[in-house]
Amino acid sequence: MPREHLLKIGVSGVRGVVPEFLTPSLTLHFAQAFGTYVGRGRVVVGRDTRLSGPMLQHAVNCGLLAAGCDVVDVGILPTPTIQIYVEHIRARGGIGLTASHNPPEYNALKLFNKEGQFFNQYERNELIDLYHQSDFTQATNAEIGYVTTDPGLAKAIHIDRVLAKVDVERIRRRHFRVALDAVNGAGSVMTPGFLVDSLNCRLDAIAIDPTKVFPRIAEPRPDTLGELAALVLKTGAEVGFAQDPDADRLAIVDENGRVLDNDDVLALAVQRALAVVPGPVVVNLTTSSAIDDIALAFGRKVYRTPVGEANVVETMQAVKAAIGGEGSAGGVIFPAVQLCRDSFTAMAFLLDLMAESGKTVSELVAALPQYVRKSGKVAFAHGRLGGLMQALEEGFPEAEADRSDGLKLLWPDRWVHVRASNTEPILRVFVEAKTEEAAEKLYATSWGLLTA
Ligand code: MG
Q1: For residue range 333-372, what is the model confidence (pLDDT) as tens digits?
Q2: This prediction's pTM
Q3: What is the DSSP-derived secondary structure letter of residue 435?
Q4: Do 341 and 385 fall within a single domain?
Q5: Widest pairwise Cα distance in the chain
Q6: 100 is catalytic
Q7: Would you state the pLDDT for residue 1?
Q8: Span 210-228, mean pLDDT?
């Protein structure tokens, strides 16, 4: 069985197929380790809509209570909403039960510190050591805590934070016609109300029943959003929104039924954010140079990090960024709402841009800096990785090299980024250039060097 199907205890928490790898007893012990680490006090627990969610939530609650924590059960909620609530109620931490865009048989524990942010590398390592040592706090009978239920406050707090950063009246006046696909995930319980009640949109929605299974591949991508694109065309919607099962990621369909490139979604959000808040921009090495052009127009600096939300977030915090994200992953991170990926901020930003400019989504995209992107995979034999990277670098001696995550080679008008997959002997190759011809040429030459 490929390694990615096994249990993974690492960067963003614990993840695996239920029940073969992520078992109830492992979940319980991990939650008890978490409770031991964050200490006695309240811990927020929420989840997406997977079938294994209620079973694993009981195990999480049990582990936390055993460690002497009190559990604040927020039920089914988007990941960013859970993170905001942790910070808002000054809880000790939080656990989100969601495997994000992974298939329905997966589940995972996303771990949040008292600021409602992903654990940083030091916190993760300490927690994992604690888990392996099994030296957990065991509450005495008199010390066992309580489970309380959130009365629905979390949603309102998240929505208020988003609305404070856009011109709500301007959006409401436009009475936008909007289509939505929430994949029957956690967005189902919040997104329709956000769009209709808060932003006065006319909504046509599919897949907003949290009691049903995911009706499509969970990751919102051009090839998985055919039904939403058809809904946009059928209803004459001005825009279509698609979320992943825990509603941190957003994909956008324009008024012609075309799914936007995720790099363009991030570029639009960066444009909106820089107009309203100070600070630099942080993106990963694979994100489009369109971000540099937009930042330059606002006189802001761009910081690049290795791929991975945790890396982007850690740098954003260090440089006090205005906004950040990862182009290819469809995540917009806007710290003025919360230092996490948030599909609600992304939706509000786009509607605000449309309301302000009077432009359609396709017109807004056409006005962005234009680049041609290409990507693909190259299989390699174990043991050859170092040699291949060296061959690539030597094939382009005139390029500037960045070795902080795989190898990125840059020229003033184009770049190629090559990284090894964490799970398979595969190199992912990304190329960006100003023209189709230049992108094709750089891709073909790189491919030749990597397969020689
Ligand atoms: Mg997600």
Answers
A1: 999 999 999 999 999 999 999 999 999 999 999 999 999 9
A2: 0.95
A3: S
A4: no
A5: 72
A6: yes
A7: 44
A8: 96
